[in-house]
Specification:
Layout (H helix, E strand, L loop, with lengths): L4 H17 L6 H4 L5 H17 L4 E7 L3 H7 L5 E6 L3 E3 L2 E3 L8 E10 L10 H7 E11 L10 H6 L6 E4 L15 E6 L2 E7 L7 H13 L10 E3 L7 E2 L5 E6 L3 E7 L1
Parallel strand pairs: 1-10, 3-7, 4-13
Antiparallel strand pairs: 1-2, 5-6, 5-10, 5-11, 6-7, 8-9, 8-12, 12-13
Helix pairs in contact: 1-3, 5-7
Bound molecules: 2-oxoadipic acid (OOG) and magnesium ion.
2-oxoadipic acid (OOG) binds next to strand 1, helix 4 and strand 6.
């Protein structure tokens, strides 16, 4: 049975407060085992409305759990999406304040910026390539609000798919000038290579993930607008970071991103 409106708002306030104030909570499906996927997205959209009501701008979207490595790492069956708020964004070389976060992890991603609207259902990779203004490199810093970073898919959707910060910059490129499938990524922490991967890890091609996002949003009557910044999902698995860590991610064709956790 679906949750009522009052419970949806209560859970949105609960999850969003934990994000803003950076404290751990227990998985919400423990207390509401009957909640549905639609409830989970209702909670996410209500938390987004909370931020907008306070004057926070929503500047983009993200896909999550789009690779086999990530689905296996987190034990979930499907990808999910979340929104990106203005204060999540950081430039190349940023210092990320770890005290504002709970137990952050870094992962390498390709970001898409749209020049045209994208509307599902039936959105496919060709529509995405035609509507993309440019792609650029990104490192997402995820920070599940759930204890020990453990959750199920409904709980993580309600928690805005663990969104918290991201770093972007490097080189922007025309999506048709590079092969995103074979685009290589090297993730280093404190000078040590911890993972190497390629774009195809994301649903075979990162643009597929953007098409899936447009189609998932269409189920709620929502469109991806021109100008939207979209993280297409982690190419690597997520790696925990601590105070003092330096992270460098080298992207073939797209340059390098660095950040320090302070
Ligand atoms: C959910 C978010 C995953 C990605 O790119 O796969 C994600 C999580 O693993 O906490 O952002
Ligand atoms: Mg991610």
């Amino acid at each position: 049975m679906a949750l009522d409106k009052k419970t949806i708002q209560k859970l949105a306030d609960h999850c969003e407060k934990a994000e803003v104030e950076a404290y751990e909570i227990t998985k919400i499906t423990d207390d509401y085992p009957e909640m549905t996927y639609e409830d989970a997205y209702d909670i996410q959209w209500a938390s987004r409305a909370n931020k907008e009501a306070r004057g926070t701008k929503i500047i983009g979207m993200k896909m999550g759990l789009t690779s086999q490595a990530k689905m296996k790492q987190m034990g979930v069956p499907n990808p999910c999406y979340g929104y990106l708020a203005d204060y999540f964004a950081n430039g190349d070389g940023a210092e990320i304040k770890i005290d504002e976060l709970i137990h952050p992890k870094v992962e390498a991603e390709i970001a898409f910026v749209l020049k045209d609207d994208l509307q599902g259902p039936g959105c496919h990779i060709g529509n995405v390539l035609a509507a993309t203004d440019f792609v650029m490199p990104a490192v997402e810093i995820i920070d599940s609000r759930y204890k020990d970073f453990k959750f199920d898919l409904k709980s993580v959707i309600a928690d805005n798919s663990s969104s918290s910060r991201y770093v972007t910059g490097g080189r922007s490129r025309d999506v048709n000038d590079i092969d995103l499938k074979t685009l290589g990524v090297v993730l280093q922490i404190n000078g040590e290579t911890v993972e190497v991967a390629a774009g195809a890890a994301v649903l075979g091609h990162p643009a597929t993930s953007i098409a899936m996002l447009a189609n998932m949003m269409a189920e709620r009557g929502e469109t991806l607008k021109a100008g939207t910044y979209i993280l297409s999902g982690a190419i690597t698995s997520a790696h925990a970071v601590k105070k003092g860590d330096n992270v460098t991610v080298m992207f073939q064709h797209l340059g390098t991103l660095t950040m320090k956790f302070v």
